[in-house]
Amino acid sequence: MLTLLYIFLANTLSTLISIGLAALLSFRLLSGLVDKMVSIAAGVLLATALVQLLPEAMESGLAAGTLGWVMTAGIVGFFILEKVTLLHHTHHHEGDEHQHPHGYDAHEAGRGAWPILIGDAFHNFGDGAVIAAAFLLDLRAGVVTASAVFAHEVPHEIGDFMILLNAGLSRRRAFTFMLISGLSAVLGGVIGFFLLESFHRLLPYTLLVAAASFVYIALSDLLPEMMRRKPLSQSLPEVALVLAGVALAGLIRTLVKGG
After folding, report:
1. Mean local confidence (pLDDT), 151-163
2. What's the CA gap between 2 and 5, in Å, rounded?
3. Which of 135, 161, 165, 163 lies closest to 149 in space, CA to CA?
């Protein structure tokens, strides 16, 4: 049971420290750069989904058709979830003239929040199980894996915070929801410890759902905001920031693999 304690502590500390550090950077140092960080987040989400999560799911040996159908179901599912959320929000705010502080209509506030939180929860759940598997090999492997997960989670969590703030959530609500989503890693670690063989069969599906959420948010919520007609002086920096997000995700993946 000592191994289970290590798994629990590693996932808990990794989650709390990564979210706390991401919140500190997002709320204190980067609060005036929300629009720019959203552009970077779009690149990070796309690259993480298509270069990291999807290839990892493919390595499990799932049939190509199954991969495609799970991704399709995930994207359509998040579309339905967002439509239901927006309909519910509109129903309870009909006639409300309040404006979002970034200039969006109040009816649009919260757009993109739930899909990113649910997708992040799946992603964190998978990370927790991966950490559990590493600790079941040996203590050193567990520590190295937990460190790698922490390293790629901090910039990812910063991007998520920026998306939630851009969607109209307050700092307190964004932090609370991110913390709840992040603690799914602890659940993944505990379940991974007891049901590792069964979970290995489910892991590619959790990775695909997470990838679907990232692709959906990037293509439906983030990039369309940048597609509005703007002068070249504004468009070029946005394109550069999206490419910077892609490069950042690639760099993180390279560093983690190298570790």
Report:
1. 74
2. 5
3. 135
Q: Would you list the domain boundaries of the chain?
A: 2-93+103-228
Single pTM value for the model: 0.61
Closest CA to 210 of 39, 70, 40: 70
Determine contact, residues 188/126, Cβ cutoff 8 Å.
yes
In tens, the pLDDT along 47-74 reads 878 887 788 788 878 888 999 999 999 8
